[in-house]
Amino acid sequence: MKHKKLSRYTQRLAVLSFAILGFLFVIRLEPALAQPAPDWKQRWEKVLSEARKEGKAVVFGPPGELIREAMTRGFSKAFPDITIEYSGSRSAEQATKLKAERDGGIYSADVFLAGTTTVLTQLKPMKAVDPIRPALILPEVTDLKYWKSNSMEFADVDGLYDLVFVNKVLALLMYNSNVVKADELSDLYQLLDPKWKGKIVLNDPLPSGAGNVAFRWIWQVLGQEKATDYYKRIRAQAGVVDRDQRRQIEWVARGKYAILLGVSDGVLEQLAQRGLKDFGLNPEFKDYGGAVTASFGSVGLINRAPHPNAAIVFLNWVLTRDGQTAWSRAMGHPSRRLDVPTDHLPPHSIPKPGGRYWLSHHEKEVTRSAEEVKILKELFGR
Q1: Domains of the chain by range and CATH?
Q2: What is the pLDDT of residues 27-44, one digit of tens each?
Q3: Which of 155, 160, 237, 325 sees the fewest Cβ atoms within 10 Å?
């Protein structure tokens, strides 16, 4: 009898222990983010005071005057005593610049706004980013009720370094609407029609960017054998492979080429707001669906930053409703914040419930297999 009683007691103790461990695990998933820390005001005032002494934050971000103005003017309106020094360029080029500076002992950047591929495959390996969670202070940012799925989304497997604030449907194709009809490109293999030979621009799939995502999507939906064949055939079909994302878009809009595979939606949206026209987009194919991306919409905190407190202030601001609205209007990106308006967005950019989308921006998805890297270097290596 004693043995049976002891056994029941041991079982109950085990169940209770698992319950406690489970409770602690749930708490650990979103530490201090479910509700604002009680001392957040005191901490914020201290950080803000030090940021004013530093005077500025250096932000590496997407190219384009609209996003530059949105970030610098929007932030200055909220914090007139702190200046934003904004450097806009393609994310892969920004990362290369950052590495060159750090190799030379120069540490100039504070915040990195970019696609997740750049942060995960370039910044993280060079150990250039700090954990983001400890820098999130404002209740408007940390309260999960403001965010899609009541969660903060991180692209890295550790959930520390690359915070995603955009979820949008990638526009896989751009085409000149005076030359191409939408139904001529509704299936993926229609791109291989002989009539398009020499009329296609490929956004180089090797560096991070929209071309990288488009080709990874093809690899994902077709599988290794079919994708390898498709890579070879689309390369032979292309008129040019290019890395200048603005130039690619203008070539197609002006009719020099008919189609662009791997269009940078952030660059395109800003050009469209400036008057670019005569183009169509294909965000998904009838046979294989499409992809959801963060585009340029993720953020990393650069370590050994020259203006660490100003960086924290900017990070918190860009994640507020005002900061996300400014970003969304300039870039045409749907924010993960639930209180950011969407009436200005292209309808195709917002993921549809139940849609066939590949989530392209998490760490396990941006890491290419050795087989894919090999064929891409054979076809596109310089």
Answers
A1: 40-167+295-351 (3.40.190.10), 169-292+366-380 (3.40.190.10)
A2: 333 444 555 677 999 999
A3: 160
